[in-house]
C-alpha cells in the first residue's frame, strides 16, 4: 500500500542544493598528492610500485560515491520541480473543466 | 626486491607516513561529508512522506554503507603505510649502519653488499690487526674472516629490508583489493531472489501473519546475524514496535547487515 504523499517543495529544493554542496566537496578531494612522493622516496621497491596508483584509486573510489550523491541532488531538485508541476497541472486540469 | 646500497641510501621511508597522513585527511573529510548527507536527508523525512521519501532514505542508507566500505578500505591502506614506514626505516637504518661500520674499519662495500677486507698492510690500526700482531698472512686472514662475517650480516640486513618492503607491498595490495571490491559494487547492484523481487515488483506481498517464515530452512533465504534486543523477543510480548524495531539500533549487527544488503554487498553479510 502506497504511503500518503506529503511533500515540502522548498525543503526538497534545499536538500538538492545541500547535497550538491556535499558532492562538490567530495569532488575536490585529493588522494594523489600524498602518495606522489612514494615512487621516488622508495625508488625501485615493490612498495613504491604498488603505491604508485593507490592514491588515484582511493580518490576515484570516494569520487564515485560523490558522483552518486550528485545524482541524488539532481533527483531531489528535479523531483521538487516535478511535484510542483504535477500539482499545477492537476489544478489546471480541474480549472479547465469550466465553471460549475 | 633487495635494493643495492646506493638505492637504499636514497630511500626516505618518511614519505610513507606523509602519504598516510594525507590519505587520512581525505578520508576524514569524506566521512564528514557522508554524515552531512545523512543528516540532510534525515531532516527532510519529517515533512516528506511517500515513495520518493522512502527511496531517498533507502538510497542514503545504501550510500552511507558504500562510503563506509570505501573508507574502511582506505583506512587499511593508511594502516599499511603507517606500519610500513617504521618497519622499512628500521631495516634501512640497520643495513646502512653495517655498511658504515664496515667502511670505518677499512673494508670496502660494493653496491650489491659484498664486503672486501682491506689489505693487511693498511690495517695496522684496526683492532684485528693490533690483536694479531705483525704476521701479515695471519692478519690478512683475520681481516678476510671479519669481512666475510660483515658481508653475511649485511646480506641478512638487506634481506630484512626486502622483507619489510614485501610486507608493505602485500598490505597495500590487500587494501587495494578491498578498495576495488568496495568501489565495484555500488549500492543497488545486488540481485534479489525471486521471492523478494516479486515483493519489490508489487507482484506479491507479505500478508497478515506474513505467511511462511522466510528464516525457515527451505524458503530459499539467507539468514543473517541480529542481536536478540534488550527487551526480549518481541513476539513473546505481543506486538511492540519499539522492541521489534531494535534491529535498527546502532550496534545491532542486523543494522550493519541490512546496510550491506542495501549497498549491494551481500558478500559482507554475517
Low-pLDDT runs of chain A:
none
Structural class of chain A: mainly alpha
* Largest interface chains and counts: A-B, 50 and 63 residues
Oligomer: heterodimer
Q: Give me the count of strands of chain A.
A: 0
Radius of gyration of chain B: 32 Å
- Write down the overall geometry of chain B: elongated
Largest sheet of chain B: 2 strands, antiparallel
Average pLDDT for all residues of chain B: 83
Rounded mean pLDDT score of chain A: 90
Number of helices of chain A: 4
Q: How would you sum up the major sheet of chain A?
A: none
Q: Hey, roughly how much beta strand do the residues of chain B contain?
A: under 5%
Q: Approximately how much helix is present in the residues of chain B?
A: 55-70%
Q: Into which percent range does the helicity of residues of chain A fall?
A: over 70%
Strand arrangement, major sheet of chain B: 1-2
- SSE string of chain A, helix = H, strand = E? HHHH
Beginning-to-end CA distance, first to last residue of chain B? 38 Å
How would you characterize the overall build of this protein?
The complex is a heterodimer of chains A (100) and B (270). With 100 residues, chain A is mainly α. Chain A has helices at 9-27, 38-41, 46-51, 54-96. Chain A is rod-shaped, with a radius of gyration of 24 Å. The relative contact order of chain A is 0.16. Chain B has 270 residues and is an all-alpha fold. In chain B, a hairpin with a 5-residue loop joins strand 1 (108-109) and strand 2.
